[in-house]
Amino acid sequence: MSLSLHPPPSGSSSSRPSSTLATSFRDRNIALPNFATLKTKELRSGHRQSVRGLGWSIDGRKLATCGADRSIRVWVPERSVDHRASTELRGHAESVDQLVWHPLQPEVLASASADRTVRVWDARVQPAAVSVVSTPGANINIAYHPTGNYVAVGDKTDTVSVVDTRQNRIVHTVCTRRSAPAGGEAYSATTVLGSHDEINELAFSPDGSLLLLSSGSGAVHIHTTSTYQRIHSHPAHTANVFCLEYDPLSRFVATASSDAMLSLWHATEWHSLKMVTSLAFPARAIGFSFDGELLAAAGEDAFISINATNPALALGADDSDQLHRLPLGAGTMINTLAWHPSKYVLAYAGDEAPKDAGVVRVFNL
């Protein structure tokens, strides 16, 4: 089943839930904040260039950000938004494009950089990384296995490297090209796929048994983590799939494509649950709230769209699952966003006007 959702009619408020949505949340004892009344706080002067990635620690106390200025910064936003109260982590030689916190240890995070390294950091230890692992290409995305024993990192050559963080070495690579890595790129195990496909995002399943790769062909490629062989390719979109994320309760997988569509899929059966059409431009970042009830999405639109995920809502043509449009500054393009792990608090950042370069914003802090 696929539900096509429509934007609110002209003149209606996009900052308040519809009566259908409000009733649905009340019936399930979910108390949403009044988004229209909430404020946004700014974390300034932490980065000198655009912020590429951010994320909350598993306990929600810390927010880490990384960017084109080669640095990582760890904030404690509820204590202070002053950059002098944050901690800077340096060591990467080029842009740091993404980071991810350890799923079990609230002080440990891993970063992926264009300098062809993955670094694992302990926020309590200054200033050097705990470990550094070289990779085949300039890295653009990273994901932790739910055990915390591995990270998967994707690079610009469309190679995915699986790093054992206990041994600090690559234990497997998945190559979406016609031949295995050559020369010094030989690793203990390599899965070579028969044809090239652009890899944009990756995610481990909550039980750790699967690795999902979103692709330029519009498919989500599904690999088993026992051998990293591909077991299925799901035709999620007809265009490039930029974003991919599991909801925290393991019910849904969300995908976002260059056709400006967001799709919600059943996490195990992979049938379509919902299609969201609240954006005019492709989403570059998506994120589920801690309870999986909300999905935020943003890119080149002049707002962040916050949508309800419940696929059981029977919405008509004059209704929408969009709960709020969080306005952005002129010319802003969102690169990254993340919900707090236990609150309806949303951090986001991207490419902005020069006077606001490197600013991180937190909604409802």
TrEMBL record:
Family matches, as SUPFAM superfamilies: WD40 repeat-like
Keyword check for Transcription: no
GO cellular component term of the entry, any: THO complex part of transcription export complex
Chain positions of WD repeats: 44-75, 89-131, 234-265
Gene3D superfamilies listed in its UniProt record: YVTN repeat-like/Quinoprotein amine dehydrogenase
Region (Disordered): 1-22
Residue stretches of biased makeup (Pro residues): 1-10
PROSITE patterns: WD_REPEATS_2 (PS50082), WD_REPEATS_REGION (PS50294)
Record keywords: Repeat, WD repeat
Signal peptide extent: none
InterPro entries on file: Tex1/THOC3, WD40/YVTN_repeat-like_dom_sf, WD40_PAC1, WD40_repeat_dom_sf, WD40_rpt
Pfam families: WD40
Family, per entry: Belongs to the THOC3 family.
Protein name per its UniProtKB record: Related to THO complex subunit 3
Species name: Sporisorium reilianum f. sp. reilianum
Lineage: Eukaryota, Fungi, Dikarya, Basidiomycota, Ustilaginomycotina
